[in-house]
Amino acid sequence: MEVINAIGRRKAAIARVYVKTGTGNISINKRALNVYFPSPLLRFVVKQPLEKLQVAEQYDIQINLNGGGFKGQSEAARLAITRALIKINPEDKPALRAEGFVTRDPRVVERKKPGRPKARKRFQFSKR
């Protein structure tokens, strides 16, 4: 099998994923998954689509991550892995969609407005 690539985004994070047949190795920015994401919860999020389809030991995955924080990066990686798995086998799409892995989460931070301390917060009102 040739290398399948896909892209995933979440907040400011961008994940580029390259999937090929292998033994289940996942490397992120040339580091092992458990080194890049020490938190077991974030590792779980990245592996969710693989565990759902029970193909975690069939593919080697190489991920390039940049931007955002660790939570956004893990969810961007999950979306990219999901898209790559759908490219490999389109029949898996309904199972992944039922879990909510196919939908790109569009929520991003609202921009700061001029004359305000934050996006919606206002300075304290003084009557006198």
Short précis:
The chain is an alpha+beta fold and 128 residues long.
Explain the layout of strands and helices.
Layout: E1 4-10, E2 13-21, E3 26-28, E4 31-32, H1 33-36, H2 40-53, E5 59-66, H3 70-88, H4 93-99
Parallel strand pairs: 3-5
Antiparallel strand pairs: 1-2, 2-5, 3-4
Helix pairs in contact: 2-3
Structure write-up:
There is one protein chain. This protein is an alpha+beta fold and 128 residues long. It has one domain (4-99): Ribosomal Protein S5, domain 2. The protein has four helices and five strands. It has a five-stranded mixed β-sheet. A hairpin with a 2-residue loop joins strand 1 and strand 2. The longest helix is centred in the middle third of the chain and has 19 residues, at 70-88. The radius of gyration is 18 Å and the shape is elongated. The mean pLDDT is 94.
Helix content: 25-40%
Strand content: 15-25%
Helix-strand sequence: EEEEHHEHH
Provide the CATH top-level class. Alpha Beta
Put simply, the count of helices is 4
Radius of gyration, CA atoms, in whole angstroms:
18 Å
Secondary-structure-based class equals alpha+beta
Largest sheet: 5 strands, mixed
CATH architect. name? 2-Layer Sandwich
Give me the count of strands.
5
CATH topology: Ribosomal Protein S5, domain 2
Strand order of the largest sheet: 1-2-5-3-4
- What count of domains describes the coordinates? 1
Mean pLDDT figure:
94
Task: List the uncertain runs.
Answer: none
Instruction: State the shape.
Output: elongated
Alpha-carbon distance between the two ends: 73 Å
